[in-house]
Amino acid sequence: MSTASAAPFKITYTSANMDLTQFHKDFDAALAAVRAKAGRSHPLWISGKAVESSSEPLSDFSPINGSLLGRFAAATAEHVDRACREAKAAQKAWGALPWRSRVEILRKAAALIRERKYEIGAVMSLEVGKSRMEAMGDAEESADLIDYYAQQVESADGFVKPLAKLLPNENTRSVLRPYGVFVCIAPFNFPMALSTGMSSAALLAGNAVVYKPAQDAPWTGLMLYECYRDAGVPAGCFHFITGTGAAIGDALWKNPAVDGIVFTGSKEVGMRMMKEFSSAFPKPALMELGGKNPTYVSETANLEDAATGVMKSAFGLQGQKCSACSRVYVHEKAYDAFVAKLIEKTSALKCGDPSEKDVYFGPVVNARAVKTFDGAIESAKKGGKVLLGGERLKGGVFDQGHFVAPTIVELPLDHEIFMRELFVPVLAVGKVDSIEQAITESNRAEYGLTAGIFTASKDEIQKFFDEVESGVCYANRPSGATTGAWPGVQAFCGWKGSGSSGKGGCGPYYVQQFMREQSRTIME
What we know:
There is one protein chain. The chain is of the alpha/beta class. It has two domains: about 40-50 and about 60-155 and about 180-290 and about 505-515, Aldehyde Dehydrogenase, Chain A, domain 1; about 295-485, Aldehyde Dehydrogenase, Chain A, domain 2, CATH 3.40.309.10. The chain contains 14 helices and 22 strands. The protein has helices spanning about 20-35, 75-95, 100-115, 115-130, 130-155, 195-205, 220-230, 245-255, 265-275, 305-315, 335-345, 365-380, 435-445, 460-465, and strands at about 40, 45, 50, 60, 70, 160, 170-180, 180-185, 210, 240, 260-265, 285-290, 295, 325-330, 385-390, 405-410, 425-430, 445-450, 450-455, 470-475, 495, 515-524. The strands form six sheets. Strands 15-16-17-14-13-19-20 form a seven-stranded mixed beta sheet, sandwiched between helices. The chain has a five-stranded parallel beta sheet with strand order 10-9-8-11-12, with helices on both faces. A three-stranded mixed beta sheet has the order 1-5-4, with no helix packed on it. β19 (about 450-455), α14 (about 460-465) and β20 form a beta-alpha-beta unit. The protein is globular and about 75 Å long. The chain starts with 20 loop residues before the first helix and ends with a strand.
């Protein structure tokens, strides 16, 4: 049960101008409760049973100060095989359950997430360096994702649809059926929301799930497992497997008992899965694979809104979002004024321990991310210049964790940083002479996830939406130029190298991707 009282409002990624007094009080209480549990050892959970491993456990350290949050069992290929085989056996009964029963159970899970959201948020803040608002938005989104996907099943009457007749005594229906077992492999950056969205859709569709949380966020993944378990998801239908990708990644998705993959992560890993998974016959592989998201700022833009929206999307969660704004194309007539405002707003960000009140910018997730940051700065200095940041933060808490400065770099448009996904807080800015050039530059990247535009021209907005190769588009949005999608509000769909299916999470076509159609004709 949560240690905190229920908040009178919902925190989303675009929440603003709210009285947060009670929120911070409740979050402080949750932090104290979570810290009291830190350092414990945790097993795998296979078919509802605690399973230990003889392998060296995973140590879960906070990126804020290096404190030990917990030790998690490191699964072997044998553990994975057991979970996949037992999921296959359990799925038949779950898939045969009336869809209303599955919806009822998953809605209970959503209620439990809301009940426990403060502790879930506190864990995420300590585990991956999320600010309080980002962490609570993640938890709230998780519950909303379940409810939204449950509504999709209800609205489609369980995905059973009567079809036409050729003969008067012919009765035909289209029925969507579960595939069987899905492997769900989640990232660190939205460790609750993405894990919940992917897995709940698979479960609602009648599949069993073998779930591997990110190596940097196993505690958050455990809290999701506990919500499903306590809501009544059958023990064999959701398995909690922790371990390194190197040790068990291939074993998970190559297991013969696995019928589908749902994955959020790097394009490199996702493309290898796509190419190798369907060896004997085609199998579903639902992928969200990152982004290199552009924003265009026109000469008619409201520069206050543009600078605010770009800053929030570039540096929320330290730039570690697949939807982060990582490149800005600014019309040459607005360039100097926009960049000045952007630097002013970014310079004012409060950096530090993100679990503390009012801290916006925390650490990157691990030492590898710091190394990526250092390499990007070195590259930016070749042909471009650093306008702000560009260094590791030092002194006090900064010396204890993985802290780097929010960074803005000015680059020629052909610089490699405009095209390469970094997943660190480095924002590239460059001049263009027209919206046509901005769109051309935007579309040069192999990714196509999100994109933003700031302009006073409705014609420019329409042109941008029609021609930019991105699945999620925003215009004149100061709460986030390229970030902030919410279930049922903005579908989160990657094009090109950013996604595999053309139908995104948070959107109206997501659940049916976890099912295959069967036509049933009965002569009466």
